[in-house]
Amino acid sequence: MHLPRLALVLVGAASVGAAQSNAVPGTDVYLYDVSNSTIYGRRGPAYPNGEVGIGFGHAFCNKGTVHIPWQTSPTTSGQMTDIHFKIAFLLARESNGRIVQVSLPNSYVKHSRVTYNLGSSQCGTCQTGPASTFRIGCYDAYSTGFNGDRFNLGPASEIDPWTGSWNPVGSYFDRGDPMVAGAAANDGVQSLTSAQVLTFDTVKNRVTVPESELSQPGTFYGQVHLVCEGEPLAARGDNLLSERLNFTWSGTAWSTSNAGGPVAGSVLNRWVGATRNTAGNGLDDGRFLVAAKVTGPVNGLYHYEYAVHNIDNARGGASLKIPLHPSAELTAVGFRDIDGNVLNDWALSRSGGELSFLASANNSLDWNSIYNVWFDSNVAPTAGSVVIDQARIGPGALSVTVASDVPNGALSASVATLGTGCFGLGLTATRPVLGTTAQITTTGIPAGTPLGVTVLSLTPTPAPIDLAVIGMPTCFAHVSGGVNEVWLNPVATAQVPLVVPSNTALIGLPVGAQSLSASPPLTPLGFIASNGVLMVVGAQ
Q1: Which residues are CB-contacts of 69 (< 8 A; sequence separation ≥ 6)?
Q2: Which of 516, 326, 537, 525 is CA-nearest to residue 438?
Q3: Which of 354, 338, 336 lies closest to 346 in space, CA to CA?
Q4: Same domain? 162 vs 193
Q5: Are 254 and 309 part of one and the same domain?
Q6: Are residues 108 and 188 in the same domain?
Q7: What gap in Å lies between CA 142 and CA 477, rounded to an integer?
Q8: Which of 46, 110, 129, 300 has the most other CB atoms within 10 Å of its CB?
Q9: CB 239 within 8 A of CB 63
Q10: Cα-flanking dihedrals φ and ψ of residue 262, to 5°?
């Protein structure tokens, strides 16, 4: 799927600001605590197939040089305003070398619609100042009870995380739940009532996590993200914070507790062994963080893991494009989003020197979300960059380029099996690494065989060739021409060495091999054939 088509499909899915035109110098909020966590309840089928509602507390202060506008909403006239902070939450789990988001996309965002200016803080002395502002040096703190109150929780899709803006007219709060009739659904006056909220189950709109995710072993982290209108990009480094959490199932209910100190920035900062880089769409839109973790090689294969966090990019991500060595082998390719719907998973595409994961029309990577991809390859990592296409039409470039480790270095040596042998004759090989000697071993040679040959060729056949026409039924050829290494009077096995010079020009060279054994009783021609192997010369 190409970007323009996806962008046209999604253009109406969210409000996008023209640029960070509302930046106010001196605006700087500091999120310094994820104080506690609460399990509100569960719903759905019996454990472990239900869903759990979770809440986090947080605290922050004004460490900038200006008082930040913050208006109580709704106002005394009943009109809702946009002049307040928005707080997003997610839950992630690290296990088996991978960190993933486990909270679902229907987890809503807190609208902090009243400021308290509770006193002096880590940001300094709480100053006096105008009404309807968050004053310099002051702090506010919210328990899970405040953050889990559904009267103030709305969809993340209504918020532009880059500018911090939100349109109350026609919003979830304006419409009510269930939606009210007539003009009241679009008049900017809150129709969501406390009576409606009281009818909700204990999970609805809160941080929602499948029990199947909580019941898996791993380390869990709750993340809080504070969005402040007018805050310049350079001051946003301390607007995200994560805390380690423990979850326990008693047999009848879940409990949670905090288990460690907070870490600033994206929860991906917790990922041990990963490299992390962030980039945005200039001053037109917000940031993606790409974390990469490469391990290996094991038997010539490197394992690549990528986690992409849309921090505050309003237009969303429509793809992840990774530079790839043209001769690279790829296996065990995977993708994970956060909705659990395999029907809208991103599609894999490979063309020349690029590996692409392409979004379906209804599954862009939106803010406060982390998607993962992974694969194995015989190519070593090198410094490069990945490209994320923007999902929606808006100001700025069509894509964002983020520095990252990519599979575009030297090829590792590899060995692949081609087909199967006939009458039990088999062939294996060790990896042809520069400066070593690979061993090609024929096994299952029938007793009494006087001789055989291992054929080494630079031209493996594009498809197996049936040898029944020349008197070798059930046997197939996998190489064409080449050098014949004869072995005499073998006893069950025969071994042929392949000396690989220390010449980097040989990296990527394919060498095919197949053995033929003189075993007259088994075929009319008197020969049987092994499977083939395809060896690729590599640097390590």
Answers
A1: 83, 132, 133, 229, 230
A2: 537
A3: 336
A4: yes
A5: no
A6: yes
A7: 72
A8: 110
A9: no
A10: -75, 155
Cα-only R_g, the chain: 30
Is residue 23 a contact partner of residue 15, using CB atoms and an 8 Å limit? Answer: no
Q: Which domain holds residue 217?
A: 34-269
Domain end (from 269, 297, 328): 269
**β-strand 85-95 against 98-101: which pairing, if any?**
antiparallel
User: Which of 10-24, 171-185, 196-210, 216-230 is the least confident region?
Assistant: 10-24
Two tokens at 403? 């520095």
Tokens of 129: 């100042």
3-state helix, strand, coil in the chain (%, to 5): 10, 45, 45
Neighbouring residues of 526: CB distance < 8 A, sequence distance ≥ 6:
471, 518, 519, 520
Q: What is the pLDDT of residue 540?
A: 84
What is the 3-class SS of 25-68, one letter each residue? CCCCEEEEECCCEEEEEEECCCCCCCEEEEEECEEEEECCCCCE
Per-residue model confidence (pLDDT) at position 15: 39
Helices (H), 187-230: 194-198, 211-214
Rounded CA separation 155/162 (Å): 16
Contact 242, 263 (CB under 8 A): yes
Handedness of CA 262, 266, 267, 273 (dihedral sign): negative
d(CA 262, CA 291): 19
